[in-house]
Amino acid sequence: MLPEMTEKSMTAAILQCRGPIVTHQVARNGCRFLHQMKAQQFNDIVLKMETAKLGRIATIPVRGRAKAIHVFIKKSPEEMLPILVTNPELCTRPARYTTRYFLPISGLISKSLLTKFVQLGIISSEQALQNDADAEV
Questions:
Q1: Low-confidence stretches of the chain (pLDDT beneath 70)
Q2: Which residues share a beta bridge with 71?
Q3: What pLDDT was estimated at residue 28?
Q4: CA dihedral 69, 19, 123, 29 (to 10 degrees)
Q5: What ranges make up the beta strands (E) of the chain?
Q6: Residues contacting 11, CB < 8 A, separation 6+
Q7: Residue 137: what pLDDT?
Q8: CA 40, 43, 46 angle in degrees (round to 5)?
Q9: Global confidence as pTM
Q10: What is the pLDDT of residue 3?
Q11: Cα dist from 121 to 2, 58, 124, whole Å
């Protein structure tokens, strides 16, 4: 049985998602704990994470979708490690954050969306090329 989803546990799980960017789909599919998370819950949590200076949100309009996609852009490990050390409830192993941050971006994020991220300066073209469609989320 999975533990109850609290704001802190969802925040910690989002921080542990692979790569520097996290979408609702990546969070749901990348963490069994977040599998039941609704899009609005994700949006609410990442808004609080942005307010807490754990990263920033980008809202990306996507053709063919009624609603824009909210993307959480995690802080780099250099910026994040001091925060994680002083807030162990966010991540009990800060080195794991670094490892997960530098994993290839989830294959659940389409090439067209990655191209938009590069155009908007959210990720580098090198990071977009590391997108791993065959990797485990």
A1: 1-4, 131-137
A2: 58
A3: 87
A4: -20
A5: 21-22, 55-60, 69-74
A6: 45, 48, 49, 54, 90
A7: 41
A8: 150
A9: 0.84
A10: 57
A11: 37, 11, 7
